[in-house]
Each structure stands twice: as C-alpha cells, then as structure tokens.
Amino acid sequence: MTWTGGATPDGTKSVKDNKSIIQDNFAYTESTMQKDHFFDDANSNLDGRHQFAQMPKNESGGNPDDPTIATDMDLVYYSKEKTSTEAPDLQMVEPFAISNDGTSNQVMQMGFRALIHFEVGPSPTFTITPKYSHNCTVARTGPGLFTLTFTTPMPTSNYIFFGTALRSSGNGLVIVPQSGTKAIKITASSLSFATVSTKDSDARDPLVVTLAVCGG
Fold first, then answer.
1. Structure pTM?
2. 19/35 Cα distance (integer angstroms)
3. Which of 24, 35, 85, 96 is most buried (CB neighbours < 10 A)?
4. Helices H, strands E: what count in the chain?
5. What is the 3-state secondary structure (H, E, C) of 128-141?
C-alpha cells in the first residue's frame, strides 16, 4: 500500500477513481499509524495512544542541529548518536529531550544533565582521556584538581553532582568539598572539584574519574 499525494478528491477524476484513491489513503494512514500507535476494539479510549515509540536517529543533513520546541509545546523527545569525541569506544544511539527552558539538553536516563568518565595518564603529562561524556568537557588545572565545563549550561547552580575517583595504588580518593585551593566551585557553566586522599585530605591525581550531574 502506498500514499497517493496531491489534492484528494481529485476534481479531474471520476467518483469511482477517487473512491479507490481515498480508500487506499485511509488504509495507508491506518497501517502507518499502527507502527507506533495502539488501537483496541474493546476500549476506544486507548485508540491512537502510544504503547511504544520507534524512531530513526536524528541525522538528517549529516550533523544536524538539535530539534526545536514548537509553539505551546513543553518538551521535544528524539534520539541521537553519540559522537566519537563523546564516546570514543562505541557511538550508541541514545534518547534525548529538551524542555521548554531552552537550555536543558539532557540524556533521559534518570534526568542526568551531564556525565563524564575519564582516565588520567601518568606523570609528567597527566593526559586526560575521556571514555564517555555528555554535555561537558574536563580539564586538569593542577594535581588532583579539575574543572568540568558544561556545553549547555545548567539552568541554575543548584544542581546535584556525585562521582568516584580511583587510584592505581595507595589510599582511596573521594570527591568532596575541601578548603583553600581544593575548594569546589559551582556555577551554572562549570564545576571545579578535587580528587582528595582519604588518608591526608591532600589532592592527588586519580587514575579514573566518573562524575554525574543532575537536577538544577
């Protein structure tokens, strides 16, 4: 079954010819709708509702802009493939949403607004290698000191963050507020934090850091 475009009914065709076109178009619409929509003969209140949604990744044009929210809408939901920069090992297709505040491009899983998992190389370079990221980049600013910069800023600075840091040897590391040069600085555009030894509270370079940001 295919869709017949153009004006229907077609004034240049007979009633009989228009009838078959209209019937075919209705049949096409119904079969196409039922790819994602649900129809239940026993309960008409369910007709046309979604039980699931299937969609291709947002890729039209090669590297598309994120979709925009239509007038009077509150949220746009879509799928997008992670880039090789964000996830070097595997570029999966993930669900995204943008709410009507215009800034909260977020991964849908539990509402995380930013995620990062990165490795820190050995001395003297301490090269950062991101293994997965969403809506952020990270830079080392000193021994055990890092700044996370959000690609799309948080709505406010009142967000929640939590994470873990691991060393290859010695005492464990935690990401906690500290005094002086190890103070965590929170703004809507960035988050500065330290990976701190559980033994002496000194900032120490980690081997691996995983950090998540949500809320705001």
1. 0.65
2. 25
3. 96
4. 1, 14
5. EEEEEEECEEEEEE
